[in-house]
Design goal:
Elements (H helix, E strand, L loop, with lengths): L4 E10 L3 E8 L2 E8 L5 H16 L6 E8 L1 H7 L6 E6 L5 H4 L24 E4 L2 E2 L5 E3 L3 H13 L4 E5 L8 H13 L4 E3 H4 L5 H31 L6 E4 L5 E3 H6 L7 H16 L4 E7 L4 E7 L2 E2 L1 E2 L2 E3 L11 E3 L3 E2 L2 E3 L5 E5 L5 E7 L18 H7 L17 H16 L3 H26 L8 E5 L3 H12 L3 E4 L6 H8 L3 E11 L5 H20 L6 E11 L6 E5 L8 H17 L11 E12 L14 E2 L5 E6 L4 E9 L7 E4 L2 E4 L4 E4 L3 E5 L5 E5 L5
Protein name: Hydantoinase/oxoprolinase family protein
InterPro entries: ACX-like_C, Hydant_A_N, Hydantoinase_A, Oxoprolinase-like
Organism: Ancylobacter moscoviensis
């Protein structure tokens, strides 16, 4: 019998259209893309595993570790396909998740509609009992009422319970006691906000624990099924999940806190891009991840993606903060829009071409897939413009029907705007690229950055098709398309550390700072974070300590990195200086001259992760040898607005230093890189492709 080995690892990323598989066999990557199976998502992983294991010449039993990321939790929230969930909260706070923050996210919309709460009012129950803002008990918990509520939930056929009491982040005693009482009568999973999201701001915290409970039965069932079926095919290795903050956690933790998986796939992509940035010593990078359903932009500085403590899913107004469902967990910060290869194109009432957020997905897929889809998707537009080879898509696994794409585009777009199929297809792609460019500009401005100062790293099955045009719009001179770009997120999983971030809200004004209390709090957070990490590794663990601080009276905080050491006598002065320095970095200057203006810490964070080996360093080259190709085909060039005879080059035939002048298409099994007339492509020493403007000398 073959035994498994730790130097063979598999990354599996379930997306809305494709499931990406990457197998690392002692440093050599074998990869594939298979269509996502909605009815049984784990089947696509098994199918992909079988393909890459065969290509690598190994058996599933030899795999030492499976690392998995999925959009299933996200999709369950967006499509409202979770369990029937009950919320138990403090008396008087039943409607918090419906009232939200009372912020008008679209100020001038007279018909503004707030997103529907995840749990309807009739499924929300209240109980007497009150914890104060300092953590003191103001009113005892009404345990008799909880017994009655438990009976109502048991008779109501609920599949999960969420508990969110006011100020439980300061004192979780009431929530824990409520769980004990309910667990005696109920056999469904119970989530408490003090464990899921121990942070202040009750709307975000309540909504997060509701989301966790809502998807918990479905995700626990899926993860158990995945493990069982992997064992059935011989892969008896442990399975770890990548969470939204970019670290690895055990399946058991993921089953208990599935809301941490909501942005797991995109997090893998950001880690992949950060690894490439470190490899080439690029300290300012914008990652561009475009798959089958969505496109994501993430800013990476000093080889690390930006992070946040909260984000939104299922926004009802595009780009509009506040219009979605807030999830209060650590997450890699990025902007995401419904612009993937499967995003559907349509014409609105004003005669404008629009794309997404609705996607054809894998079932039925774009019209060109021949799987029953009749509406035009971005992939159909790419095909009509010549960017894709209909006979060599996904390595020839899927034959594309160009005529079906033309019919769909003509019917839904061209006929309505009196455009030929090619012109309509160009319009679709231009709208997609402009939407992505706008999203990137907005994201950069919100973070105080100039987008044109960055190098782009493009990956995902569709990003290399659009990257050059996006660079033209954003004024970027260089773009890297890494080796394995088509399955970038899955490769990123293999590079992710075992990591976890523990947070706790404890409001501390520096004028009343007590080092012993804060040291005790941080010690608990360190123990909590490290316990999750130790479930996957026995290696060296490094910690990052962050205080989220503000001037008293401000509504939001800024992250202030701190040294990993206990606070002593000079703690207040050190915290004040660190806060002022970071405040000036964010806003240009600190606030001076206001007597009595207090500084306070709102939330404390400890991020623990194991140390990852540094990637091999490479130097960017702009090319020494010009390569010509014998194979050509017409490809639409947006800069000239015409079809251009473009070189078709197999990526595998290129060597480091080879320069391919645009227009060209560099093809591989999982994606194709379109080189427009304004760019050349240069093969790098690590197997990546650099798109570089022609005016940059070779």
């Amino acid at each position: 019998m073959t035994s498994r080995t730790d130097d063979i690892r598999l990354g599996a990323d379930i997306g809305g259209t494709f499931t990406d598989i990457a197998l690392d066999v002692r440093g050599t990557i074998f990869s594939t893309k298979v269509l996502t199976n909605y009815a049984a998502p784990e089947q696509a992983i098994l199918d992909g595993l079988e393909i890459v294991a065969r290509d690598a010449g190994i058996s599933p039993a030899e795999i030492g570790l499976v690392i998995h990321g999925t959009t299933l939790a996200t999709n369950a929230l967006i499509e409202r396909r979770g369990a029937k969930t009950a919320l138990i909260t403090t008396e008087g706070f039943r409607d918090v998740i419906e009232m939200r923050t009372e912020n008008r996210f679209e100020q001038y919309d007279l018909n503004l509609k707030l997103p529907t709460p995840l749990i309807p009012r009739e499924h929300r129950f209240t109980v007497k009992g009150r914890i104060g803002a300092e953590g003191q008990e103001l009113q005892p918990l009404d345990e008799a009422a909880l017994e009655e509520i438990a009976g109502t939930i048991a008779a109501g056929g609920f599949g999960a319970v969420a508990i969110g009491f006011i100020h439980s982040y300061m004192n979780p005693a009431h929530e824990r006691r409520a769980r004990e009482i309910l667990a005696r009568r109920l056999s469904v999973p119970i989530s408490i906000s003090a464990e899921v999201s121990p942070q202040m701001r009750e709307f975000e915290r309540f909504n997060t624990v509701c989301a966790n409970a809502y998807v918990r039965p479905q995700m626990a069932d899926y993860l158990a099924r995945l493990q069982s079926r992997l064992k059935d095919m011989g892969a008896t290795c442990p399975v770890f999940m990548i969470h939204s903050g970019g670290g690895l956690i055990s399946v058991e933790t993921a089953s208990e806190f599935p809301v941490r998986l909501v942005e797991s796939g995109p997090a893998g992509g950001a880690i992949f891009a950060a690894d490439i940035a470190r490899r080439f010593d690029l300290d300012s990078v914008v990652s561009y991840d475009m798959g089958g359903t969505t496109a994501k932009i993430c800013l990476i500085e000093d080889f690390a993606p930006q992070t946040a403590r909260t984000f939104e899913v299922a926004r009802t107004y595009r780009f509009c903060k506040g219009s979605g469902m807030p999830i209060s967990i650590p997450v890699i910060e990025m902007i995401e829009i419904g612009a993937g290869g499967g995003s559907l194109a349509w014409v609105d009432a004003m005669g404008r071409i629009q794309t997404g957020p609705e996607s054809a997905g894998s079932e039925p897929g774009p019209a060109c897939y021949g799987r029953g889809g009749e509406r035009p998707a971005i992939t159909d537009a790419d095909l009509v413009l010549g960017k894709l080879d209909p006979d060599n898509f996904a390595g020839g696994a899927i034959r594309l029907d160009t005529a079906a794409s033309q019919r769909a585009i003509t019917r839904d777009v061209g006929a309505r705007l009196s455009l030929e199929p090619q012109a309509a297809a160009f319009g679709i792609c231009e709208v997609v690229d402009e939407n992505m460019a706008n999203a990137a500009r907005v994201h950069a401005v919100e973070n105080g950055k100039n987008i044109s100062d960055n190098v782009m790293i493009a990956f995902g099955g569709a990003a290399p098709l659009h990257a050059a045009r996006l660079c033209e719009k954003l004024g970027l001179d260089r773009c890297l398309v890494p080796q394995g770009a088509g399955v970038g997120s899955a490769i990123g999983f293999l590079k992710a550390p075992f990591g976890y971030e523990a947070l706790a809200s404890k409001l501390v004004r520096l004028s009343r700072f007590r080092a012993d209390e804060v040291n005790a709090l941080l010690a608990d957070l360190k123990t909590s974070a490290e316990s999750f990490v130790r479930a996957g590794t026995s290696g060296t663990i490094r910690r990052e300590i962050t205080a989220f601080m503000r001037y008293a009276g401000q509504g939001w905080e800024i992250p202030v990195p701190l040294a990993d050491e206990p606070f002593g006598e000079g703690a207040v002065a050190d915290l004040t200086e660190a806060f002022r320095r970071n405040y000036a970095r964010f806003f240009g200057r600190a606030i001076d001259g206001l007597d009595g203006l207090e500084i306070e810490v709102v939330t404390w964070s400890v991020k623990a992760s194991d140390e990852r080996p540094a990637p091999e360093r490479h130097t960017i080259t702009t090319g020494t040898r010009t390569v010509s190709a014998g194979v050509t085909r017409p490809v639409f060039d947006p800069a000239t607005g015409t079809m251009q005879i473009s070189a078709i080059v197999e990526r595998a035939t290129l060597s480091a230093g080879d320069r391919v002048p645009g227009p060209a298409v560099i093809v591989e099994r999982e994606t194709s890189t379109v080189v427009t007339t304004t760019f050349d492509a240069v093969m790098q020493s690590d197997g990546g492709i650099l798109l570089v403007r022609k005016e940059i000398a070779a």
